Amino acid sequence: MKISLREAISFGGLFHAEILAGENKLDTIFIESVTTIEVTDHLIGEWVKENQLCITTMYAIRDNLQQQLNLVKILQEKKCAALVVCHVGIWIEYLDTSFISLCKTEGLPLIKPDMHVSYLDILNPLIYRLMSNDKKKNLSYHELNKEILDMIIQGESLSNIIKKATKYYKNQVTFLDSYCHCIYSSKTWKQVEEEKIYIRKNFNIVFSHLLRNSFLDTIELLPDKLIYLVQTKNNVLGFLILDTPKELERTKNKILQIAETLNTICALVIGKQTHTMQMKEYYIHEYVTDLLVWNFRTENEAITRGIEAGIQLKNKNIFILVNLNSFRNLNNIDKESLYIEQIRVEILPKINQKIMKIDSEAFLHLYSDQIFILLDLKKQKEILTQRMDEIIYIFDKNKISVSVGISEEFASIKNIPTAYKEATQAYNLGRQYFGEKKAIHYSDIYFFQEIMQLKQKEETILFSNKVLQKLIDYDKQHHTELLHTLAMLLKYNGNITSIAELMHLHRNTLLYRKNKILEILGYSPFEMPYYFSIIIALQINEMF
Question: pTM for this structure?
């Protein structure tokens, strides 16, 4: 559905906004959707839609007038409804007169809200108004009374709204989400458990039937119940389970009307929450991207933008990166989506609980195939190690392999990009040298990283070959594996029993090889100063 531009500026974050261009089009332009844009180059033309209200700060092009003018032309070419520029005076100092003039010439309405109005202040009311109009057209809406509508508008929780509705319609009901988690029920705990168990055990049969018929009322194991599929045009939201009288046929139409009305309520509330959440996630994702490259003029600016997104960055002093190793084995976009959804719904809340025990204002974000955690360590390094082990165990229990990198502590949030690099190097090198399912501090791999840089120097490679040359030559001449044996002896601290098992050798064979190594080298590589040189040389040759 659509609303006029005049209506859009009559409520929410655009109320009292200044119209800098296109005032004569307020009644003739209609908005069908709303989006935010921070990528302001030619690529936006690929996703900006006709009749869409575009909200931006123009932060990325605040100092480039030509790009600002190009943005106007692209939006007008795509028949964008209007452009809203937020935080003028904070993130962009002012709007150039030539920018405003071009908007007028091109016929693109330009709106400037109060500098302190946030994206969400504008997005939430608009999304709800657009959705409400759409639902009026497509869903059975006439049964909703004013009180329930007010609750939806005020952002009341879904469970409270369903509770009110079921009292209004005088019916016992359970609402399970698509994972069979109970969102609300007016029934006993025992009844709810029976309903959940039935749907979980018969999920495929129930779901396929509901897709064809929208409701199921002949259930042998759940007598006097009607199951109704809660859905919108594009999404399945869950299941409504209503109690029905024994003589269902007489009241079937009434029960289905109640189910349809509750479906409307769920669709409105969840749809509104989903759209708001998606917009907020997009905003946070852009913010995190800016943090990783420090796309801010001052610390205060970074902190202010964080607060707008509900993130408290002040006092954060450590960066943790959880890499989802299992993700790289997926080769199907549907599998990737399910995998990420499982992590988002089932695992992130558990991780959050663990992290909050260290810092109640910690920031946790799923970023593609990685999870970023920013927190105030408060000198709790030992507790952090324990929490990381618990988090790795949570993933392991769900058969998901992870590697964790932990940065050094930093004094200023300006150092977040450096901390991110440290955490990345820690998990990468930690996985290489210590294996997966480990939490590695940057300090633990610092020298490994330095050795990696040494590998780039030709003289280092020549020196490492010189140190190992006698064993390399002997192995080549006699088809032996003394160099590999030496690497294993050093790696496992000379533990003959363990190494013999790993190499599938008899103990005496391993002892013979050890003595042969000593004989060829003419010194003990297990004692200083030779020990250090041999270890470095093996690292350079990627044998340790």
Answer: 0.50
